[in-house]
């Protein structure tokens, strides 16, 4: 089939996919909500207030390159919500490329971003298309803070922290556990260095007296985005939820994965990880409450003779993700991205522009910036 709607949201029945559809409605962008179960997608969309005021269609599609290519043909942007992306992403990226569509997703998987860059980055660039995994609160909002720090010349080292209150969705939990079997990297003198997977750190949380427990969280996408940025030589990122008890459980789980699951044959590891993930989060969390589900993105940037610290306080990290995806599509429908091939949201759309959208929709405060140079 060929369609006339400019955006396809693939995996629209999930928690984040629904929010992307909600914000596409806010921008009045026609879209196709697609996935493997049409009835389930329709049930989800029926609960979105005002969804009947935007032109949209629900389509059931097989998860394979051929059917996905047919679905995407005629669209301009594919917003992919189907993770873990290292497992389910390749078919969608290949189909989007074949259909001449820009590709967005919400991954937190560093290994997927590196894989996508190596396998498809050049091919997307040659077609003038954007390949942008990780357009999501967990890394984009922190990347905005990092770029605000880097507006001060002479800073070359980034120390990134992302924390939030709440609990990951089922799909996010599956992704988190998939990351546990990969190698994680930080950036040191523009070279990838491998994290010790058992790394954990007590971190100072801006705005409160208590410390929090944070982990490398799969390495995050920040080292990938800043790998070839001439301003940056070193980048480390830590993250987690603000509930220390939950984080201590994650530390113990990582130890278990290292000692029990990584010793299994490779073909058995995915099933074992999925089983553990399902035992942690098997259902759909409630819709975010701004009073409860707060987020903090903090970046210390330093150089030989300068320092900057930027903090962005916000709430509802999944709503932030839905908005970022919708705005990215909104921008791509009107003008080419600032960078083609593999690029982050900030590289493709501008960090100040993204910040402006998050503020306009009431999801973040003005950044708190301190500079010494």
Would you write up a description of this structure?
The protein has helices at residues 15-26, 38-45, 65-72, 85-98, 110-126, 137-149, 170-179, 222-225, 244-261, 266-280, 317-332, 345-349, 351-360, and strands spanning 7-10, 31-35, 56-60, 77-80, 102-105, 130-132, 157-164, 185-188, 191-194, 201-204, 211-214, 234-241, 294-303, 306-315, 341-342, 368-372. With 373 residues, it is of the alpha/beta class. The strands form four sheets. The protein has a seven-stranded parallel sheet, with helices on both faces. Strands 12-7-13-14-16 form a five-stranded mixed sheet. α3 packs across α4 (85-98), α4 (85-98) packs parallel to α5 and α7 (170-179) packs antiparallel against α10 (266-280). The longest helix is centred in the last third of the chain and has 18 residues, at 244-261. The protein is globular. The protein starts with 6 loop residues before the first strand and ends with a strand. The model has no long low-confidence stretch (mean pLDDT 93).
Spatial strand sequence of the major β-sheet = 3-2-1-4-5-6-15
Percent of residues in beta strands: 15-25%
Low-confidence stretches: none
Query: pLDDT average, as an integer?
Result: 93
Shape: globular
Discrete helix count: 13
Largest sheet: 7 strands, parallel
- How many β-strand runs? 16
Class based on secondary structure composition and strand pairing: alpha/beta
The N- and C-terminal alpha carbons lie at a distance of: 58 Å
Task: Give helix and strand order, one letter per element, not per position.
Answer: EHEHEHEHEHEHEHEEEEHEHHEEHEHHE
> How big is the Rg?
20 Å
Give the proportion of residues in helices.
40-55%
């Amino acid at each position: 089939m060929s369609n006339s709607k400019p955006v396809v949201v693939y995996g629209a029945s999930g928690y984040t996919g629904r929010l992307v559809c909600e914000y596409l409605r806010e921008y009045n962008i026609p879209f196709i909500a697609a996935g493997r179960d049409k009835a389930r997608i329709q049930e989800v969309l029926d609960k979105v207030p005002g969804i009947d005021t935007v032109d949209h269609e629900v389509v059931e599609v097989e998860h394979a390159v051929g059917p996905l290519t047919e679905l995407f043909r005629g669209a301009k942007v594919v917003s992919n919500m189907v993770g873990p992306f290292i497992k389910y992403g390749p078919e969608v990226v290949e189909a989007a490329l074949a259909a001449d569509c820009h590709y967005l997703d919400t991954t937190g998987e560093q290994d997927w971003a590196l894989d996508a860059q190596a396998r498809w980055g050049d091919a997307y660039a040659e077609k003038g298309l954007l390949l942008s995994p990780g357009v999501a609160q967990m890394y984009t909002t922190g990347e905005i803070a990092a770029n605000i720090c880097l507006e001060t010349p002479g800073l070359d080292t980034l120390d990134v922290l992302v924390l939030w209150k709440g609990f990951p969705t089922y799909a996010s939990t599956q992704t988190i556990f998939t990351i546990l079997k990969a190698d994680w990297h930080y950036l040191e003198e523009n070279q990838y260095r491998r994290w010790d997977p058992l790394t954990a750190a007590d971190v100072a949380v801006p705005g409160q007296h208590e410390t929090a427990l944070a982990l490398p969280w799969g390495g995050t996408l920040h080292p990938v985005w800043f790998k070839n940025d001439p301003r940056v030589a070193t980048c480390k990122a830590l993250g987690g939820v603000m509930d220390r008890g939950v984080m201590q459980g994650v530390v113990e789980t990582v130890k278990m994965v290292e000692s029990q699951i990584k010793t299994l044959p490779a073909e058995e590891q995915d099933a074992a990880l999925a089983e553990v993930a399902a035992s942690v989060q098997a259902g759909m969390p409630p819709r975010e409450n701004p009073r409860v589900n707060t987020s903090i993105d903090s970046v210390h940037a330093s150089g030989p003779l300068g320092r900057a610290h930027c903090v962005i306080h916000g709430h509802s990290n999944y709503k932030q993700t839905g908005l970022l995806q919708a705005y990215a599509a909104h921008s791509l429908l009107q003008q080419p991205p600032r960078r083609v091939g593999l690029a982050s949201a900030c590289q493709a759309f501008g960090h100040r522009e993204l910040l402006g959208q998050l503020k306009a929709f009431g999801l973040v405060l003005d950044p708190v910036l301190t500079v010494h140079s």
